[in-house]
Design goal:
Layout: H1 7-15, H2 17-26, H3 34-64, H4 69-92, H5 98-127, H6 130-144
Helix pairs in contact: 2-3, 2-5, 3-4, 3-5, 3-6, 4-5
Length: 146
């Protein structure tokens, strides 16, 4: 399947745009209002990132688990990132020193995105037939509808 990105990969990359924007905001040098930024970051996490993480794990990861050792290892790293990101956001909801926590979350989001872009998407695409990719894509579309 390699050589032509299927809509599944395009959708997964597109879903990362909110994470990329948030990562950039959280790592900005001139954060003047960390309380407001933290509140918006928590809203973005609960409204966009957490549902995205859950769909990736429940649909994509579950579908390809056990097919390829390298893919399984990367999925384990990504799932661990998801859990760590969730813990940091929960901590952010009550943290006094928000600025350092915002930067830590931004850095972790950036690292997570890099792993997805440089490893996961390539391994995922290589492990799926076009038919399987379409099936997962359809499942993600159905799961994301309200």
């Amino acid at each position: 399947m390699s050589g032509h990105a299927h809509p599944l990969i395009k959708d997964l990359k597109s879903a990362n745009s909110a994470m990329q924007a948030l990562s950039t905001q959280l790592q900005a040098i001139d954060i003047t209002d960390p309380v407001t930024l933290a509140r918006r970051a928590v809203q973005t996490f609960h409204g966009q990132l957490l549902p995205q993480f859950q769909m990736e794990e429940e649909i994509v990861h579950a579908f390809v688990a056990g097919r390829d050792e390298n893919l399984d290892q990367v999925m384990y790293i990504l799932k661990d990132d998801h859990a760590e990101i969730e813990v940091l956001f929960r901590k952010l909801e009550s943290e006094v020193n928000q600025l350092s926590l915002l930067r830590a979350i931004g850095s972790l989001l950036e690292e997570h995105l890099r792993t997805e872009e440089t490893e996961f998407f390539n391994l995922l695409e290589a492990s799926l037939s076009p038919e399987e990719s379409i099936l997962i894509h359809q499942q993600l579309r159905r799961a994301s509808k309200p």
